[in-house]
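Consider the tokenized backbone below.
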């Protein structure tokens, strides 16, 4: 156990040395590549204005997303009505979608709890 702790500590030291050596260059390069997104002057007022713009823009997009949702639901209803004509590809897509839902909800919950399983005694 002590040797693993020592290995982890040495890796952490190596990583922090790498960041200390190359972090500033990476930071400047990142800012240079994305300077079109930087607002000048960088003040608290400007940040507040941008956050309000983002909030109200997202709020204004709700009706369009709501309409898209109901179009998708209508497509699912049509597929369900014609379930006798269901192809293997459509069934595969539905299975992958179900697997993705499982991953987002169940596995995400497990990861959020720090990879602990509640209710199980192992």
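A designed sequence for it:
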């Amino acid at each position: 156990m002590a040797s693993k702790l020592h290995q982890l500590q040495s890796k952490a030291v190596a990583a922090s040395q790498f960041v200390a050596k190359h972090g500033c260059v990476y930071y400047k390069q990142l800012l240079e590549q994305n300077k079109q997104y930087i607002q000048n002057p960088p003040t608290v007022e400007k940040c507040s204005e941008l956050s309000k713009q983002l909030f109200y823009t997202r709020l204004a997009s709700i009706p369009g997303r709501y309409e898209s949702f109901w179009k998708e639901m209508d497509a699912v209803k049509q597929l369900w009505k014609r379930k006798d004509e269901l192809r293997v590809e459509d069934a595969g897509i539905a299975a992958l979608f179900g697997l993705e839902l499982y991953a987002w909800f169940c596995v995400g919950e497990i990861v959020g709890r720090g990879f602990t399983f509640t209710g199980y005694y192992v």
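The chain is about 75% helix and 0% strand.
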